[in-house]
């Protein structure tokens, strides 16, 4: 049975508001945990001064929020842990080592990772090898900080390394790290023509986090704005006895950021009948 306590908040779509306002809204929605998207002006990897980190921690305490996972922006920023440019890749890994330190400072359980992207003009195998090396380096440093990692595949427009459940499984098995769990993003799953069952069968209890999004099949939309069979997906998760965390990731075309509270409230209304059903 999926429970309300498994659903955590996040600052996705809230990037045009100050972090204190965001935390207040999440608290009012009933959240006590969140996925912290590492984006400016909240807490990014380029302006993460000690004073900024202290400010974020104070806001979290004031609003009785804890950070479950820290998710630095890593698709749009000049960060790429699989880059074919050695300087960019080294700097990217260095920033993620520091991100693991930030996780420890925040008391977060997880650091969120994606595989990065290789040059389109080179072989996938070369980019794959660089990504494996980078994730291993980051995961080892995270372990020393008492932090685990989450790994999410990306859509083909975002990465040419890991795009589906089979590739994620092969990549995950090749890692020399035992502190890396797996993320299921429902839009990435749908665009790859995968299934919830495939993720559950391949990863079992190591499937630890789900991004709930609607799509057509892409789009990262609010529940109901797309045509994905989200109720069916949740039935599969429920049947699998999934015990990890869930959160919404409404990006859309940017319009959700104009009124993020409304976007989240629509998602919450849609999912409410599917949680704690044994008690209803």
Question: Describe it for me?
Answer:
With 280 residues, the chain is α/β, with parallel strands linked by helices. It has a single domain, classed as Divalent-metal-dependent TIM barrel enzymes (TIM Barrel). It is built from 9 helices and 8 strands. Helix 3 links the parallel strand 3 and strand 4. Helix 3 runs parallel beside helix 4. The mean pLDDT is 96.
Summarize the entry for a quick read.
The protein is an alpha/beta fold.
Any chance you could write out the topology, listing elements then pairs?
Blueprint: E1 9-10, H1 19-28, E2 33-38, H2 50-62, E3 66-72, H3 86-106, E4 110-113, H4 124-144, E5 148-151, H5 165-174, E6 180-185, H6 186-191, H7 196-203, E7 207-212, H8 230-239, E8 245-248, H9 260-271
Parallel strand pairs: 1-2, 2-3, 3-4, 4-5, 5-6, 6-7, 7-8
Helix pairs in contact: 3-4
Q: Would you give the CATH topology? A: TIM Barrel
Helical percentage: 25-40%
Instruction: Provide the low-confidence segments as ranges.
Output: none
Q: Note the main sheet.
A: 8 strands, parallel
Give the tags.
globular; alpha/beta; 280 residues; TIM Barrel; 9 helices; 40% helix
């Amino acid at each position: 049975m999926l429970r309300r306590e498994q659903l955590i908040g996040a600052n996705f779509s809230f990037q045009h508001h100050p972090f204190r306002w965001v935390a207040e809204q999440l608290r009012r929605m009933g959240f006590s945990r969140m996925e912290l998207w590492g984006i400016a002006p909240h807490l990014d990897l380029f302006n993460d001064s000690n004073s900024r980190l202290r400010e974020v921690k104070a806001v979290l305490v004031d609003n009785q929020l804890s950070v479950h996972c820290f998710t630095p922006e890593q698709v749009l920023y000049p960060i790429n842990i699989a880059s074919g440019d050695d300087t960019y890749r080294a700097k990217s890994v260095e920033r993620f080592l520091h991100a693991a330190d930030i996780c420890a400072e925040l008391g977060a359980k997880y650091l969120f990772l994606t595989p990065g992207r290789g040059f389109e003009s080179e072989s996938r195998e070369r980019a794959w090898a660089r990504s494996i090396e980078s994730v291993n380096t980051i995961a080892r440093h995270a372990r020393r900080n008492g932090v685990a990692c989450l790994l999410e595949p990306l859509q083909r427009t975002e990465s040419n390394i890991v795009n589906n459940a089979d590739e994620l499984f092969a990549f995950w098995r090749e890692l020399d790290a035992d502190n890396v769990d797996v993320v299921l993003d429902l839009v990435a799953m749908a665009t790859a023509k995968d299934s919830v069952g495939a993720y559950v069968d391949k990863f079992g209890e190591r499937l630890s986090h789900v991004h709930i999004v609607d799509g057509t099949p892409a789009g990262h939309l609010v529940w109901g704005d797309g045509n994905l069979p989200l109720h069916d997906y949740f039935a599969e998760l429920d049947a699998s006895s999934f015990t990890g965390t869930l959160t919404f990731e409404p990006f859309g075309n940017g319009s959700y950021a104009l009124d993020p509270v409304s976007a989240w409230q629509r998602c919450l209304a849609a999912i409410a009948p599917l949680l704690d059903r044994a008690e209803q």
